[in-house]
Structure formats: C-alpha cells, structure tokens
Amino acid sequence: MTKEQIARGVAEKIRLRKKKRERQQFLFPEMNHQRLTKKQAAGIVDSMFEIMKKALERGDFVMISGFGKFQVKFKWARKGRNPRTGENIILESRRVVTFHASRSLKVMERTAGREAAR
Q1: Of 31, 25, 27, nearest to 13 (Cα)?
Q2: Which helix (H) or strand (E) holds 11?
Q3: What is the pLDDT of residues 8-26, one digit of tens each?
Q4: Terminal-residue alpha carbon distance, the chain
C-alpha cells in the first residue's frame, strides 16, 4: 500500500474536513520537518532516477538499503505467441530490469497487509 492509499483509508474512517495539505501533515508528521518546495523535491527525485538509469545502462546493479535491489538481466530470444491474433512469433533477446525487495520491505508489506485486512 502506498502512503496515498493509506491516507485515503484513514481519511474515510475519520472524515477529516481539513485542506489536503493539513490532512497530509496530520497523517504524516515527518513531512513537517522537510523544508523543500515541490520543485526541489522533484529535482532530487529526477536526479536520483537519472543516476539509477545510468548505472543500470552500464550493467551495474542499484541497491537501496532497506528497500531492495534493481538489476539488469539478459533474456534470450524465445518463441512466443501474440495473444490477440494467436500468431506464433519470435521474441528477440533483450535486457530487462528486475527488482528484488529487501527482507525488511517484505516484512513491512506483510504486516501492512494484515492490518489492512482487519
């Protein structure tokens, strides 16, 4: 679940009648400490993705502690089928980016799923 989904669920339960920004600050108090504009935050995120993109293009992996690992894998050419027409086709070999979540992220996801099911 993303922060936005959690925020929507909480807002529905307690029916906050505040502005969106006040609601976010109420639900996520850690956001009150950051003094970044949206433009600055977008710049930081864009530069981080650009660094990750360049590393993956070189064939390196990108590990984010407590989050997971992105890496490039090679997939060989293989036979496939067009699901719309049923026509047999050959899928060319290619490189794909894979993501493996860290243990701590998996544990957090499981506990969040259990709490949401309640």
Answers
A1: 27
A2: helix 3-14
A3: 665 555 544 445 555 555 5
A4: 14
Query: What pTM did the predictor assign?
Result: 0.56
Question: If you search the block for the tokens 């977008």, which residue do you land on?
Answer: 42
Question: Which class would CATH give 36-117?
Answer: few secondary structures
Given a contact cutoff of 8 angstroms between Cβ atoms, the answer to whether 7 and 27 are in contact is yes
HSE of 54 in the Cβ direction (CA atoms, 13 Å)? Answer: 5
How far apart, in whole angstroms, are the C-alpha atoms of residue 32 and residue 107? 27
What sign for the dihedral angle of Cα 16, 17, 20, 25? negative
Domain boundary assignment for the chain: 36-117
* Cβ atoms within 10 Å, residue 62: 19
